[in-house]
Amino acid sequence: MALDIKICGLKTPDAIAAALTGGASHVGFIFFGKSPRNVDPETAGRLRTAAQGRAKAVAVTVDADDAALDRIIAAMRPDMLQLHGRETPERTAELKARYGLPVIKAFSVHDATDLAAIMPYRGVADRLLFDAKPPKGSDLPGGNGVSFDWRALAALDGDVDYMLSGGLNAGNIAEALKATNAPGIDISSGVEVAPGEKDVRLIAEFFQAVRAATNTMSGAA
Ligand SMILES: O=C(O)c1ccccc1NCC(=O)[C@H](O)[C@H](O)COP(=O)(O)O
Questions:
Q1: What is the pLDDT of residue 219?
Q2: How far apart, in whole angstroms, are the C-alpha atoms of residue 129 and residue 28?
Q3: pLDDT-derived band of residue 221, with 50, 70 and 90 as boundaries?
Q4: Sorting pLDDT into bands at 50, 70 and 90, what band is 188?
Q5: Alpha carbon of 8 to ligand 1 centroid (Å)
Q6: ipTM score of the complex?
Q7: In this structure, is the dihedral angle defined by the CA atoms of residues 192, 197, 201 and 203, taken in order, positive or negative?
Q8: What domains can be seen in the chain, in order of their start residue?
Q9: 127 CB within 6 A, ligand 1
Q10: Which EC class, in a word (predicted)?
Q11: CA–CA distances in Å: residue 192 to residues 82, 102, 180, 189, 196
Q12: 210 φ, ψ to 5°?
């Protein structure tokens, strides 16, 4: 099965073009005021057109209310919604029904005990995303550029569809894929030169590293 690759926190046409050229399956737009990657819905709506028919455009929100989500959905027309806050299973189901969109639910992980949190979301969220816990003092629930111990995911049932996230970069993606065999990966800070500033060269290098890693793994199988 092909590996899904989400480049998240995109804000410029150049960065989106680099993500699509590299072969991103998903491109993510952040709607969170405190984030250096925050975009307004209208800007995201213009930017996401480049991805039409090439990659899924994901709206990333954090405990957003209906009014904020209505505006995002109307202006951006996302293919998927990513819930990166404390949205309950009930709220997740409600949003899926309200917008008729597939939902990615994010979970923060430190060790295998954190995986118990996913149980009530199974059959509700379409996909899970495992991210590291934010460092102390961070204002951001995601996009912190920190990893968790990937061995925590060894306890997962084989049929859980998820994206591995948190502190990935060209230097560690081979090890991350080897440790987890994740069906999808998600990256933001690892392709930036400063918080919120994507770099087209780093994006290209990340895709190269992913290709090298997956070629090595398929050769070894
Ligand atoms: O990236 C942000 O600024 C952000 C802010 C608020 C909620 C979620 C956010 N990012 C969500 C993502 O999917 C990131 O790609 C993920 O957390 C990984 O980020 P990184 O560790 O920087 O690669």
A1: 76
A2: 13
A3: low
A4: very high
A5: 7
A6: 0.98
A7: positive
A8: 4-219 (3.20.20.70)
A9: no
A10: isomerase
A11: 21, 28, 24, 5, 7
A12: -65, -45
Round to whole Å and give the CA distance between 126 and 112: 21
Please answer whether residues 165 and 142 qualify as being in contact, where contact means their C-beta atoms are separated by less than 8 angstroms.
yes
Q: Is 28 in the pocket of ligand 1 (CB under 6 A)?
A: yes
Exposed, middle or buried by CB within 10 Å (0-12, 13-18, 19+), for 68?
middle
Mean pLDDT of the chain: 97
User: What digits encode the pLDDT tens for the residues 61-89?
Assistant: 999 999 999 999 999 999 999 999 999 99
Of 81, 165, 203, the residue with max ligand 1 atoms within 8 A of its CB, to mutate for a pocket test, comes to 165
Mean local confidence (pLDDT), 129-157:
96
CB 49 within 8 A of CB 29: no
Answer yes or no: is the C-beta of 170 below 6 A from any ligand 1 atom.
Answer: no
pLDDT at 134: 97
